[in-house]
Specification:
The complex is a heterotrimer of chains A (382), B (171) and C (201).
Chain A lengths: L20 E6 L11 E7 L2 E8 L7 H6 L7 H7 L4 H16 L5 H30 L3 H21 L8 E2 L2 E2 L5 H27 L2 H7 L7 H7 L4 H4 L7 H4 L20 H24 L20 E9 L2 E9 L7 E5 L1 H7 L1 H5 L7 H8 L3 H5 L1
Antiparallel strand pairs in A: 1-2, 2-3, 4-5, 6-7, 7-8
Chain B lengths: L6 E2 L4 H11 L16 H4 L3 E5 L4 H10 L2 E11 L5 E10 L5 E9 L3 E3 L7 H13 L2 E3 L33
Parallel strand pairs in B: 1-2, 2-5, 6-7
Antiparallel strand pairs in B: 3-4, 4-5
Chain C lengths: L4 E3 L5 E3 L40 H11 L3 E2 L5 H10 L22 E5 L7 H10 L5 E5 L1 H5 L23 E3 L6 H16 L7
Parallel strand pairs in C: 3-4, 4-5, 5-6
Antiparallel strand pairs in C: 1-2
Helix pairs in contact in C: 1-5, 2-5
Classes of the chains: A alpha+beta (382), B alpha/beta (171), C alpha/beta (201).
Chain lengths: 382, 171, 201
């Protein structure tokens, strides 16, 4: 089957007859383009007139694979969609199927899931923090963040067996139970994070004058831009909208925990930075409450199903990943292979706002802005 | 699928009022006939519609004015069942949870109207639908492939493409 | 080598010039060492750990192996483990391989960390061509070995294995491989380089 390729270039990127306009290509291999993002910048001097993100370099056909295998076989794919929030995505997919098929999850498994997902959120924000500073030229925070991250990864590794791409969730619960060593290690980690590390990051980085100069007022996302582009997650919360899926449509047992939804109003890079530090603190609070309230009991239903055949229909399930609103849209025809599985990933919409955000900024700020959006390319390209 | 549907046609005054007041959150009854089908606890959305493809810009305008976020635009290949491609739009309000799923059928070689003039989020969503399903959108500012290579000659998520059973046999 | 003849790599006897302490700089010879300072291969005892004679190629291979400069080339999930290997806990710098270069022209080794999509393949080829010889390639993770978790019949989106594009020297299995596995792979590459395989680039 042949299709006519659309050869017309993006009209916004046309030179308009201006002899001073030139084009700069950043990526897909670039020291700071997180993942394989390609940004084509139309510039005059140092000023960006128009930016066009080119994506698709990490397209791995997740959605096609979902149509070619049954629901259980798709579990390993879920972590690899956004590998930094791998646990959150994995558990979210399990939760979607459980909701569709009315599978009851034991209490202990719910608590363990919350602990694992929130630890995963902290580790994702830590990695963002380290790489963001690395992009701006500060190499030391990267090492500290990875040190904290290694502690989380060790904690999760001890129970799941993986460091990055987990298949910890099953439809109805989790695979392995946690023990007292896990709990003790988690508590120790939380204490260190809250008492020592997060204040240190605030002081050393947040109060650093160079960092502030590079981030304050840079890359402002307005509420209007965020609304029209479907931006969610910390990028949206930095514009003043307190939207968090854990509060807006509570899933799992998040309604039992006390946590704030941090917001800022400036919408600039500094706001997103402060926001993510606060989110790490709030996640620490949730983990602490979950660890304190961890009940005894089984971690899988007494009689897990052998085959998973959701009733025919269309279903949508949303969670809050580290980057925003992650939605799973499943069309089932009653068999054990989905008709369609669409992953509504937050970075896709967040990155699509880049042309508006980068317009009329300086190219030197591009790295800071794109870094502060916190995109993961395989999540965009799926 | 045996879900009952209601058609939204913008040239009917009665439907227009009903639609407007429903979207603006008044106490008008939900569009879906049977509450089981729009049961949020099971399905994850509150309302589901089947609309004419020509009325999609109008419907989108109502959601935009009421402050609903465009969460997703995707497509389902129903050429085997019904000979059409079914576009799916999802709208949700951030302040109060209210998710609407809007379906619109379009013939495989026909064009659908683009909603990028209202929601710029649709820019990339529609490009992805074109890339994966081949549905063109009229009025789109930059309709070209987004995920597949620019010179790809296939539409990836169509049902007749890329099936395991069609794989060439390894020698 | 003080001996007159020595076998080269192919086993032929080669005649080499005599190198004695007389031709070595005076600072290397300790005064009053109690003997005339020579030893069977001409190196003074005191200087022995610090001075050695060898084939130039071996020396160059040792230098190349011990200071591999990888290209910053994370494609997907394995990139995170590569970053973790470069961070403080699993320090790559102690093996000399911690200096990640963003420019392909300054890099020795390309660590393919992540799935190679068909759209990315020409870019990879271009980067590989930009790297000057001698250069090596490490395929990290299942995706670069044969497609890994994304391999299935009629997969349209990925290149199933980095060796479809470049000649790979070391394969590191895992999904993603632990940082220790990446370090083991780099050490294996070092062994390979030190063993003196001839490269055509």
């Amino acid at each position: 089957m042949s299709t006519e390729p659309n050869p017309e270039p993006n009209p916004a990127m046309a030179p308009d007859g201006d002899p001073e306009v030139y084009y700069l290509n950043m990526g897909p291999q670039h020291p700071s383009m997180h993942g394989v993002l390609r940004l084509v910048l139309k510039m005059r001097g140092e000023e960006i007139l128009e930016a066009e993100p080119v994506i698709g370099y990490a397209h791995r056909a997740h959605e096609k694979m979902a149509e070619n295998r049954n629901y259980l076989m798709f579990l390993p794919n879920t972590s690899r969609v956004d590998y930094l929030s791998g646990m959150i995505y994995n558990i979210a997919y399990c939760q979607a199927i459980e909701k569709i098929m009315d599978i009851e999850v034991p209490e202990r498994a719910e608590y363990i899931r919350i602990i694992a997902c929130e630890l995963n959120r902290i580790s994702s924000h830590l990695l963002w923090f380290g790489t963001f500073l690395l992009d701006l030229g500060g190499i030391t925070p990267f090492l500290y963040c990875f040190d904290d991250r290694e502690e989380i990864l060790d904690i999760l590794d001890s129970v799941t067996g993986s460091r990055l791409t987990y298949s910890y969730g099953r439809f109805g619960g989790v695979t392995m139970d946690v023990d007292s060593a896990f709990v003790a290690r988690t508590r120790a980690f939380l204490a260190r994070m809250r008492d020592e590390r997060l204040p240190k990051y605030r002081r050393l980085v947040g109060d650093n004058v160079i960092f502030r100069e590079r981030c304050e007022g840079v890359g402002v996302i307005t509420r209007d831009v965020a609304f029209r582009y479907g931006v969610t997650g910390p990028c949206l919360r930095s514009t003043g909208v307190a939207y968090d899926v854990r509060r807006a449509e509570p899933y799992s047992i998040y309604d039992r925990f006390e946590f704030k939804i941090p917001t800022r109003v400036e919408g600039d890079t500094m706001a997103r930075f402060d926001l993510r530090i606060e989110e790490m603190e709030e996640s620490c609070k949730i983990v602490e409450q979950a660890v304190d309230g961890l009940p005894e009991g089984p971690i899988m239903p007494a009689k897990p199903k052998k085959r998973y055949r959701p009733p025919a229909g269309e279903y949508y399930f949303a969670v809050e990943s580290a980057r925003g609103h992650f939605g799973t849209y499943i069309i089932s025809d009653g068999t054990d292979v989905p008709v369609k599985l669409k992953l509504r990933t937050p970075s896709f919409s967040n990155l699509s706002s880049m042309p508006d955000v980068l317009r009329n900024t300086m190219v030197a700020d591009t790295i800071a802005i794109v870094g502060s959006i916190d995109v993961v390319m395989p999540e965009i390209d799926r | 699928m045996s879900k009952p549907r209601a058609e939204a046609e913008h040239d009917s005054d009665e439907h227009e009022t009903e639609k407007m007041s429903r979207i603006l959150g008044s106490s008008v009854a939900e569009l879906a006939e049977s509450s089981e089908h729009a049961d949020y606890a099971k399905y994850g959305y509150h309302h589901v519609y089947l609309a004419n493809i020509e009325s999609i810009p109008e419907i989108t305008r109502h959601f935009f004015d009421a402050g609903y976020l465009l969460e997703m635009v995707t497509c389902q290949d129903r050429r085997d069942d019904a000979g059409t491609m079914r576009l799916v739009y999802t709208f949700n309000h951030l302040a109060h949870l209210d998710r609407h799923l809007v379906h619109a059928d379009v013939a495989a070689d026909a064009e659908a109207p683009s909603i990028t003039s209202l929601y710029q989020a649709a820019d990339w969503f529609e490009r992805e639908v074109y890339d994966m399903y081949g549905v063109r959108f009229s009025g789109h500012p930059n309709l070209k492939r987004i995920l597949l290579p620019e010179d790809a000659d296939f539409y990836a998520l169509r049902k007749d493409f890329g099936r395991i059973e069609d794989a060439p046999q390894e020698s | 080598m003080a001996s007159d003849s020595k076998k080269n790599r192919t086993g032929d006897k080669v005649h080499l010039p005599q190198l004695t302490t007389a031709s070595v700089q005076p600072s290397l010879v300790k005064a009053g060492s109690g003997h005339d300072g020579t030893s069977p291969d001409g190196i003074p005892i005191e200087a022995r750990p610090y001075v050695t004679f060898g084939v130039l190629e071996d020396l160059l291979n040792a230098a190349r192996a011990n200071s591999l400069w990888p290209l910053t080339f994370g494609l997907a999930c394995c990139a995170i483990e590569m970053m973790a290997a470069g961070a403080a806990k699993y320090d790559l710098d102690r093996f000399g391989a911690g200096v990640f270069r963003p420019s392909a022209r300054q890099a020795d080794v390309m660590i393919f960390a992540g799935t190679i999509s068909r759209k990315m393949a020409p870019v990879i080829k271009q980067l590989w061509d930009q790297m000057p010889s001698p250069k090596w390639a490490i395929a990290m993770g299942g995706c670069t070995i044969d497609g890994g978790p994304f391999k299935y019949p009629n997969q349209y989106a990925i290149v199933e294995g980095a060796d479809h594009i470049v000649p790979v020297d070391v394969y590191i299995p895992g999904c993603p491989p632990r940082p220790e596995a990446l370090i083991a792979g780099i050490l294996k590459l070092k062994d390979k380089i030190k063993a003196g395989r001839r490269f055509k680039g």
